[in-house]
Write a structure and sequence with these properties.
By secondary structure, this protein is an alpha+beta fold. The chain has eight helices and eleven strands. The termini are far apart.
């Protein structure tokens, strides 16, 4: 039986609409009310429990989507009986649906330095585990996740078969680790390339120079500033970016020049610049 139909609400009904429908039906069918129906009252309560508990609702809708064979009414009763509810003692236990376990999505937040080096993380997760062939209980377990070096923002790591367990011979779900990179004040990353900005005094921009730049991994790199460098000009340094696919291959480092202008000059210095007569 469909909990939405039991409460008489649409599938996109808000929490307030579900609550309002439940209160009206519960009042009308309460066993102590005139014309009350104990069996109907229990169904209304179980339907309300499904639609107001996000985890149970999500599980119900996924199981309903995957089911084959039994009628919606049988499915609803089987779903509730597996969670310890038995509002219809005459319901046959012969219906055994093979149901796959659902996946568990976990976000892991990494600094750019951690993504560069890779990281091993231990975490606790809650998952559904089999109590017997068709009953599940929630248990907390610790898992270890090895994040490879060069991990990218949005990258997914799949731990096969470690998600919520299936029922009646259904396969176990997976744990899906979703990498989220934190903002970095000095570096940004696109694909496997690293980007940063460097401040260059205007005299060095004109005359050219070599400066020291500290990379994401702490390496100090000699960077050649060409003569007559322009504002926002890029300098590309090969193989000094992020690792590619947990290998020793690396992307490039792209440095963008920010020319620093002096806040003041002596009259003699101004005259020297005027005498340059640069057009």
């Amino acid at each position: 039986m469909d909990p939405y139909k039991i409460l008489g609400v649409d599938k996109d009904a808000s929490k307030e609409e579900i609550k309002s429908a439940y209160r009206k039906l519960a009042k009308d069918h309460h066993p102590d009310a005139n014309g009350g129906d104990d069996s109907k009252f229990k169904q209304i309560n179980e339907a309300y429990k499904i639609l107001t508990d996000p985890a149970t609702k999500a599980q119900y809708e996924e199981d309903m989507f995957k089911r084959t064979g039994p009628s919606p009414e049988d499915f609803f009763r089987e779903f509730m009986s597996q969670r310890g509810f038995n509002f219809n003692p005459n319901f046959s236990s012969r219906i055994k649906m093979k149901q796959n376990g659902t996946n568990i999505n976990v976000k892991v937040f990494l600094s750019l330095e951690e993504a560069f080096r890779g990281k091993s993380i231990e975490m606790s997760i809650d998952r559904l585990e089999r109590l017997d062939a068709n009953k599940l209980i929630q248990k907390n377990r610790r898992i270890k996740v090895n994040i490879p070096k060069g991990a990218k923002d949005g990258q997914q790591l799949v731990l096969k078969g470690q998600g919520n367990q299936g029922r009646n011979g259904g396969r176990d779900g997976d744990i899906i680790i979703i990498i989220q990179l934190k903002q970095n004040a000095l570096f940004s990353v696109r694909e496997h390339n690293l980007y940063s900005r460097i401040k260059v005094p205007f005299t060095q921009a004109i005359l050219g120079d070599t400066i020291i730049f500290k990379n994401i991994d702490g390496e100090k790199i000699n960077v050649i500033i060409p003569k007559f460098s322009q504002q926002n000009q890029n300098i590309e340094i090969l193989s000094k970016g992020m690792p590619v696919g947990n290998s020793d291959i690396r992307g490039n480092l792209i440095l963008t020049i920010d020319i620093e202008m002096p806040k003041s000059l002596t009259e003699k210095q101004l005259d020297a610049i005027r005498n340059l007569n640069i057009s």
